[in-house]
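Fold this sequence, please.
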Amino acid sequence: MRYSGFKVFLEGLTGNRGWKPAWRDPEPKSDYDVIIIGGGGHGLSTAYYLSKVYGVRNVAVLEKGWLGSGNIGRNTTIIRSNYMLPGNEPFYEFSLKLWEGLEQDFNYNAMISQRSILNLFHSDPQRDAFVRRANAMMLAGADAELADEAQLRRELPFLDFDNARFPIKGGLFQRRGGTVRHDAVAWGYARGADAEGVDIIQNCEVTGFQIENGICKGVQTTKGAINAKKIAVCVAGSSGRVMAMAGMRLPIESHVLQAFVSEGLKPVLPGVITFGAGHFYVSQSDKGGLVFGGDIDAYNSYAQRGNLPVVEDVAEGGMAIMPMIGRARLLRSWGGIMDMSMDGSPFIDKTHIGGLYFNGGWCYGGFKATPASGYCYAHLLAKDEPHPVATEMRLDRFKRGHLIDEKGQGNQPNLH
């Protein structure tokens, strides 16, 4: 079934009796060409592109819970490609281009809104760093615009420009950045993959790998053993636990990242705004709530909830750039489990075990990378070679000394 305005109108006239389930609920088969472990955004997008672009349709996606129960439904919905390093910027620009055509591609309303993202700067050295970043972005084909204080005073008069500690001197715009309805991304990819013949199996937890003579030939699950020629893992914050079942120790730590939504307000924020002297980012949802977040909780955890010191730190960041946020009441908060790599950048690579592949280490960049991550992972699975924009995202880059340290923080995950 294709969705359209005409279809909505027709169903409204006929009592909405013609709608069908968005995807099937099949039982697993005994054998597949590819098993994808993880039914989040990256797993579902991998299945979608693997089947639609590369023609591999005998695929199963195994999800231990329900679709959208992980990080794909627990983020602040921001999309952007304002990175700087060669190992990152082309990849995220590729992802943003996929976002721009995604709704038409998989025929689903993901509420993609390119309302812009603005990174504020508060000092002359920080301005120079953003000029360098903007030049790198434009060299990679992305858009970038430097705004001075006078321009921001006209566009965003509610910001605290004269803050004694953090005066706002300007900012870096990426007008093509914005927000997307996060869980709708999962539903759209699931519907698209199912239409190509992919089996999406919920409530099916992987409990082990079938490894014989250094080759992975299948998985053990709560629904029995399932064989496959290739096993693709993309389980975000559970990466360490899942790969440990294959005897691998990853350069990844799991941390909680909290996010918050305020009560509904009249429209005030035209786009996404980030604080340059701390870690705070905010946008306004279509329902009017301010959606914002900040740093991860510095301790390791698998809990999908955080602690109060981070709540206080995030609130302080918001108050520093727009004191008006202090009058808004917090409606709810949640936490996602971040797979924090040692240099803050991800992996899309084969492992040393034959037939076993890994996608993870996304840190803060997971949601915005969803389309490109799935596309590049599908390319790797189909062709056994990295996609041209993901050649640096290898598991052995620490051994080789080829880090992608976007923030320049070294090998300390909680600083990324």
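Residues 86 and 214 are 34 Å apart (CA to CA). The radius of gyration is 22 Å.
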